[in-house]
Amino acid sequence: MTKMSNSDFHRMSTLLEASLTGHLTKSERQEFEKALGESEELRLAYLQAMNLHLDLDRLSRSDEDLLVARANGVAHAGSVSRLVKKWSAPLLLSTLAVCLMIATFCFSLFVAMPEQPAGPVAVAPEVPAEDTSPVIVEVANAAIFGEGRTPEQGQRLILGRRYILTEGYLAIRFHSGARAVVQAPGVFSAVGAERFLVRSGKCSVYAPPGAEGFELLSPSAEIVDLGTRFVVDVAETGETQLSVIEGEATMAALGDAATMPLIHLFDGDMAQVDPGLPPRRVQASPSQLTYMERLPDRVISYEATMVDSLAEELLSVTVQRDGVTRTFEREDMVRGRVGEFTGQAGAATFCTRMDDDLPEGAARLDLLHGDFSLVTGIINPSASDSQEVCMSIEFEEPIVNSPGPDIIVFDLQLLVYAPKGDKLTLRSGDDRASRPELVVEQFDIQLNSPYALDLLPHKTYRSLERTTSVDDLIQKQFMHGRQVNVDARALAVGIDLSDLGYQNGESLKILDFLPATEGVDPVLIIGLRPAERPTP
Amino acid sequence: MSEFPSSLSPRMAELNRNIDQFNDDPSTHETATRQDFDQLLENHREKIFLYLMALVNDRDDADDLCQRISIVMWQKFDDFDHARSFLSWACGIARLEAYNFRRARSADRLIPQNDLPQLLAVTLENFEQDPAEQRLAALRKCVQALPKLEQSFLHDIYWEGHSCDSIAEKLECSTRTFYNRMYLLRRRLLKCVSRRLRTEQ
After folding, report:
1. What is the CB neighbour count within 10 angstroms for residue B153?
2. What is the per-residue pLDDT for A328?
3. Residue A358: C-alpha distances to residues A353, B32, B37 (Å)
4. CB contact under 8 A, A52 and B154
5. How far is residue B192's CA from residue B147's CA, in Å, rounded to a whole number?
6. What CA–CA distance (Å, rounded) separates A9 from A2?
7. Which H/E stretch holds residue A60?
8. CA atoms within 13 A on the CB side of A181
9. Summary mean pLDDT of chain A
10. Is residue B82 within 8 angstroms of chain A, CB to CB?
11. B146-197: per-residue pLDDT in tens?
12. Do the Cβ atoms of A482 and A460 come closer than 8 Å?
């Protein structure tokens, strides 16, 4: 019996799911049945999935309210009269029935009995009290001191708890619809459903219609949003600056409300409160306080095929481009192949899946661009005396500069190495002389990000001598593959061609990697197509 | 979209009446054989139903077939060699009946006339299945522990009967991507159920 490759298995797992909860085309069905016939592993997976499918169906009949108020908070009244099917042994009539028409035999089987009389039952589902605490809606490389985990999208703030944001950005949405973007370093607390205390740091607030009255507090000031966009900067010693970008807000020093002086601010106004003193207007300085409407454009997350909870091949990637979140499927991605490469003698140069061997010849180059694997790659390019570029990547088609990330580099990072990812130095390979270099100090999806997926085990192949060209990659002998015994995750960073000196609409064909201080392990490099693809 | 009947079918009601009549007529009892047959059927009914679902992938059709094959199995029960596997014997009957059933209805999807049904029966023999009550209790807890978004997927599909196409459209992703997501979710649930069954035993 042939064992399916992981990628084949995952192609089939999609068809398996479609066969359970969706539709298969005729050719897909034939393909699926052929694969079922050939793989015991797939047949077992099919039976397991079908068994769970039936159990979920049973659960939906016996536990009607199990997920009530889960989907968008909607309670599904009106379905309580549905009959409950029971398949359990005690209630099953496993007797034989006389088949009167043929006057001979009888049967029993799978009898479903209504447990209770049909008819509506006036049961009002319990709707839990709505949670109005603020919720984190976006995260960009954020780290909170003292928290055992990276903040996650959807996480609610605990009222009164002090959060110390040491890195990155968070967007927080309040019940009224008000939205605050806080950036590190900063210390903040939610002190009520619509009250936000910024002890230090920068915070941009947008209060849409309906969210008027949202209050932002600092150790020295109280700001009431009257429907506006504003930005606040709170110093560690309490001095609070407010700049109103649009709309109206009031600012007051903290103290007795009756005697507290208060000033009104409108578009373009700026004011400051020093601890213990009344607010005062200050000269607006556009560069001093920059309002942050949204988090930076970046790679937000990616999805991959999984084997026992370990990622293998990229399926899609979700990025924010010009403030808009969009998911790119494989058909929207342009792969890149190695055009130049240099590496040191003895360096791990190829990376393969644990069960695979290093291919021979030009097929070795496919480890980087031949599939969407996040485990295979051509790694550790490094400088040589004669060549400035240690690796160049040539894309299958030109990558057009659009707002936000245009190219995404996936890097295999062992858990013991730099959590922010390997530092990259990049440059245009088309126009080396006149375009600026870009140093990537940190990845968008870092080692501790909840979106960094654990990877399948892998092997590396070391070079016997210095690698000076792509021909060396293809032709030279490499040491026998060795298992890497440290777990790894796939990190991702988006590259905006604007940062490489490209104007909007200009395109790049070749991307250069310049020597890095530490090793870089690229396992997949893709470009993103700019235009919306029509739905097939 | 999957087809899940929301109430008992008239066929089932008719079956219940027949069973009642039968139970009232002791002259038709062939007690020992019937009890033997009953017991074997009871022991394997879940797997037989699973097998039928794997063949026809339609709950209504699987319900119909369950009734049909029970008659046929009873008719042929004298021929059953007790030294053999009852499940394997039942699957053989189910296979033939499923094929005839689909062909008679000119169903667009016929049961493949190759080795696949036989191979599925072999796999089924080795398929470990915990008791339904325990499975459902574990599944209930695992579903409740899922993130809300994933609960909403299950709710939409199993509780509300929405299609994957419509959910994918709402999520602004391709249906294929959603299938993959559902597959991963299903794997997680399977692991969770398995873990709970092992630790709570």
Report:
1. 21
2. 93
3. 9, 65, 58
4. no
5. 14
6. 12
7. helix A40-62
8. 17
9. 82
10. no
11. 777 788 889 999 988 898 889 888 877 778 778 877 887 888 888 888 888 8
12. yes
- Which residues does A315 contact at the CB level (< 8 Å), separation at least 6? A302, A303, A304, A305, A329, A330, A372, B177, B180
CA distance A504 to A142: 29
Q: What share of chain A is helix, strand, coil (3-state, %, to 5)?
A: 15, 35, 50
| Cα torsion B121, B123, B126, B129: sign | negative
Quote the CA–CA distance of A421 and A122 in Å, as a whole number: 58
Instruction: Determine how many CB atoms are found less than 10 A away from the CB of residue A136.
Output: 19
Query: 3-state class of A470 per DSSP?
Result: helix
User: What number of other Cβ atoms are within 10 A of residue A47's Cβ?
Assistant: 21
Residue type for position A217: L
Count of helices and strands (H, E) across chain A: 5, 26
**CB pair distance less than 8 Å for B38 and A306:** no
Residue with tokens 């609409």: A505
DSSP A139: E
A105 and B119: CB-CB below 8 Å?
no
| Residue indicated by tokens 């110390």 | A164
Are A396 and A334 in contact by the 8 Å Cβ rule? The answer is: yes
pLDDT at residue B126 is higher than 80: yes
Q: B114: which chain A residues are within 8 Å (Cβ-Cβ)? A: 33, 37
Residues of A in contact with B135 (CB under 8 A): 55
CB contact under 8 A, B180 and A315: yes
- Kindly tell me if the per-residue pLDDT of A188 is higher than 80: yes
ipTM: 0.82
- Residue identified by tokens 């070749």 is A510
How far from B118 is each of A32, A513, B87, B114, CA to CA, in Å? 16, 55, 12, 8
In tens, the pLDDT along A343-391 reads 999 999 999 999 899 999 999 999 998 889 999 999 999 887 777 899 9
The C-alpha atoms of residue A490 and residue A408 are separated, in whole angstroms, by 12
Q: How many residues does chain A have?
A: 536
> Using CB atoms, which residue from B45, B143, B152 is nearest to A109?
B45
- Number of residues assigned to chain B: 201
- What residues of B are in contact with residue A106 (Cβ under 8 Å)? 18, 22, 28, 71, 74
In the numeric block, which tokens belong to residue A445?
């999806």
Angle at A457 between CA A451 and CA A460, to 5 degrees: 115
d(CA A204, CA A171): 9
- Structure tokens that stand for A65 in this block: 């309210």
d(Cα A263, Cα A485) in Å, to the nearest integer?
Answer: 63
Which residues lie below 8 Å from residue A400, measured CB to CB, with a gap of 6+?
A406, A505, A506, A507, A529, A530
Sign of the Cα torsion B91, B95, B100, B102 reads positive
Residue B5 in this model has a pLDDT that exceeds 90: no
User: Quick one: tokens of A69?
Assistant: 């108020």
Q: Is the pTM of this model over 0.90?
A: no
Three-state SS across A387-419? CCCCEEEEEEEEEECCCCCCEEEEEEEECCCCC
Question: Measured between alpha carbons, how far apart are the two ends of chain A, in Å?
Answer: 37
Residues near A317 by Cβ (< 8 Å), separated by ≥ 6? Answer: A299, A301, A302, A303, A327, A328, A333, A408, A492, A526
Instruction: Please give the distance of CA B38 from its chain centroid, rounded to a whole number.
Output: 18
Of the candidates A485, A478, A492, the one whose C-alpha atom is nearest the C-alpha of residue A521 is: A492
Largest CA distance in chain A: 101
Q: How many CB atoms lie within 10 A of CB A182?
A: 26
In Å, what is the CA distance from A53 to each residue of A8, B46, B191?
22, 13, 14
